[in-house]
Amino acid sequence: MDHKKLTILGSTGSIGRNTLDVVSRNPDRFSVHALAAHSNHELLARQVEEFRPALAVLFDEEAAGRLKELRPNGGRTAVAWGMEGLLEAAGAAEVDQVVAGMVGAAGLLPTHAAVSAGKQVGVANKEVMVLAGELMMNLARQTGAVLLPVDSEHNAIFQCLNGEDGAQAERIILTASGGPFLDLPREKFISITREQALRHPNWNMGPKITIDSATMMNKGLEVIEARWFFGLPPEQISVLVHPQSIVHSMVEFVDGSVLAQLGLPDMRVPISYCLSYPERLPLDLPRLNLGAVRNLEFREVDHERFVCLSLALRALKLEGGVPAALNGANEEVVAAYLAGGFPFHRIGSILEEVMEHLEQELNPAGPTPAVKERPDEALTPGYLKHIATVDDAVAADGHGRKLALRIISQAANT
Ligand code: MG
Question: pLDDT tens-digit profile of 112-122?
C-alpha cells in the first residue's frame, strides 16, 4: 500500500480522534494534509502540534482566530475557517482520502466536494447518505471517487461482500444494540432522564448519535444509508436487535449462507479497514474472546417502543427528499432535547407529527395532520419528490427542520 495523505473532517469528534489514533500507529502509511473541526480550537491545536498538517480548519471563525493565536506547529500550518475552509480541506489536490467524520447534515457539502474531486472517502457521517445517498453514489461513479463505509454495521456488510457478487446478496441484516432502553417497559419511557439517554451500553460516541441510538433513529438512518451504499431495495434490508454488539452485521446470500463480521465494539477496526482498503493493517487492540462472551443474543425490534425506527422506514418508502426532511427534523428535535426542551419520549411523538405532515404534503388526499398547514406551503415542493442536486437535499433538510421547529414551538405554547 502506498503512503496516503488524509483530510479528516470532524477531527476533534469521536470518529476523528479514533482515526488519528490509527494514523499514529502507522506513521509510515499515513500522513495528514488537513484537519477540520467545528469549534474546539484547543484540541485541534494539540492535534496540529502532533500531526503537523498543511491546513487546519475550524468552522467557527472566532475559534479559528484563537487557533491562529496559539500558533501550533510553529505557525507552519495554515488556518482557514467557515464552509470555504471545509471545502478546501475536502477537495485539496494533495489529498488521497477524506474521512467524513462530521455530525449531521453539516457534512453534506464538504463530503460532496470530496466525492466531486474523485477522492477515496471514508463515510462515517451517515446523515450525508441519508440526505443524498443516491446522488453521492452516482457522482462517485462519474468522478471515480470510492465511497467506503466507516459505520460499523455498513463496514461489516462491506467486508462480508468483499469478493462476492453483490447481485447474489439476498438480504442485509443490520444488527442493533437496542441502546440503553432495550428492556425498559413502555410506560417507563416517560421518566427517562437525559443522563440515562446519554449512557450507551456498548459504544462511546458523541451526544447526537448517542441519543439517536437510544431512540433507535440511528438504526433507521442506517437502513437508509445501507439502501444507497449497497443498492438494495428497502425490503431486502432488515434489522435485528443484538445487545452485545459483537456481530456488527450480516449478509444472507441466495443459497441461504449468512456471512457475518464479528469483533469487539471499537471504531478503530472499521476505520482502519477503510484507511487501508483493500488491504488490512495489523491492529494491536484487545481481541474478541467468544469463550468469555459466551452468549450472543438476537431478537426482533419492538416498533411500538422504538417508533423512530418505523418513521425512518416510512420515510425511506417515500424516498425522494423525505428521508432528508426527516433527518433534518431529527437533528432539530435532538438538539432541542439536549438543550432541555422536553422529555425523552417526546422525541418520537414530535417526529411522528413531522412525518404525518410530510406524508400529507406528498398525498393531500390522506389524513389531515395535527399541525395546520400554512397557505404558502400548500404545494409539494419538488425536492420532497426527488433529490436531483445537492441544493435539493439542503432544501429538503431545511423543510424538515422548519416543520420540527414549528411543532416544538407550538407544543411549548400550549
Ligand atoms: Mg452504526
Answer: 999 999 999 99
Return the residue matching grid coordinates 491546513: 55
> If you measure from the C-alpha of residue 205 to the centroid of ligand 1, how many angstroms do you get, rounded to a whole number?
10
Output the pLDDT for position 378. 56
Report residue 371 CA to chain centroid gap: 29
Q: What is the pLDDT of residue 368?
A: 61
> What φ, ψ does residue 249 adopt, rounded to 5°?
165, 170
Task: Name the stretches of the chain with pLDDT < 70.
Answer: 1, 366-379, 414
E strand or H helix that includes residue 288: none
* Cβ atoms of residues 123 and 149 within 8 Å: yes
DSSP 74: G
What are the chain's domains? Answer: 4-149 (3.40.50.720)
Residue 113's nearest CA partner among 104, 93, 130, 23 is: 93
In the reported structure, the alpha carbon of residue 379 is separated from the centroid of ligand 1 by a whole-number distance in angstroms of 36
Residue 256 grid coordinates = 441461504
Outline where 120-258 has alpha helix (H): 126-143, 152-161, 194-197, 207-215, 217-229
Ligand 1 centroid distance, CA of 400 (Å): 23
Separation of CA 245 and ligand 1 centre (Å): 10
pTM above 0.85, yes or no: yes
